[in-house]
Write the structure tokens for this entry.
Amino acid sequence: MTQTHAKTDAATALIDGLVRAARSAQTALGSSSFATRQKALHEAAKIIRARTNDILASNQKDLAAAAQSGLTEAFIDRLTLTESRIEEMAVGLETIAAQPDPIGAELARWQRPNGLDITRQSTPLGVIGVIYESRPNVTVDAAGLCVLAGNAVILRGGSDSQHSASLLAEAMVEGLQAAGLPGAAVQIVNTTDRAAVGAMLAAVGGIDVIIPRGGKSLVERVQRDARVPVFAHLEGICHLYIDKDADPDKAKAITLNAKMRRTGICGAAETLLVHQQVAGDMLPAIAAELQQAGCVLRGDSAARRLVPDMQIAEDDDWRTEYLDAILSVRVVDSIDMAITHIATYGSGHTESIITEADDAAENFLQRVDSAIVMRNASTQFADGGEFGMGAEIGIATGRLHARGPVGAAQLTSFKYVVRGDGQIRS
């Protein structure tokens, strides 16, 4: 047996064991009371707060290894935990616990002429596999949402966040156990061997859905190789469109926030489109603020005539998710041209129009076919926590089952409950 085959067999055996434990745990979790699942999340939040110093120390190990590996600033920002970010995780769990029970909800109900009473009722998906890279908070967000929705979860974090993610997963397990639920409802893959990812993607009948959180190469691999269903977005090429009826102050503040608040998140704006009627007045001032904040601008010829020190935008720039302090800028002659640009180059993630004109706003909101469309708001609000979901397990840009922020309610399926009184079919 070759070394590669031995690694594959070992990874398959590891994942098989986790899947068996997860399916057993999910049976108990899925039938547990809402109050019990809420208690598990509150207990986990307490444990995370109590272990803040330990979590920070583990994170420092990950950060030291990342710095030694020469990873980018944007990557290191996603990896970094602070006291405030740890508190945000704990608050996120409490906010998740405050959501309505996603299990057993009556989605629809009707009666047939023959007297049959039919209900469509929400149910857990089952066992969810989450494959992610540098964000340790995904460990808590994903586990919390899965637990509330009655799903067991198998977490496979990246090697870069191994120390942080493992400690956070332990806190979630202890929270479950404190509520009398099986700890195996949350499991983390304790190997950095990439063969484990392949084993998860091949776990047909064991894992019900895979959710990847990470860079383009990870998501492409998952979408290419998975034999189980996938919730995913490949890229976050998000657009801001400044309409001819935009408020200049709103345009300036929203653009700066959408690009520069955190450049390494999927909701960061990557392309700015400006209507030609206001570009001369607004673009130089907006560009000056962005450049002062450290943003590199790459513009088309019309944008560069207004801001000569912009770099030249190549065609690939319109298709690029920078995840960095770089912004592509294009001057458009109409809202139709803006919508066409988004349809041509966008990834279906998040787009925002800045305008005071109601008709233009509705035109944009109805015609742009992305998972999230906004008016007069920063694209950085593309986040389940900001939507009131407590957290998200990711942003889905596909069109099947889930789209946009995936919260607890999106981690359910449904069944039909039919109540009769002796009916037989002729």
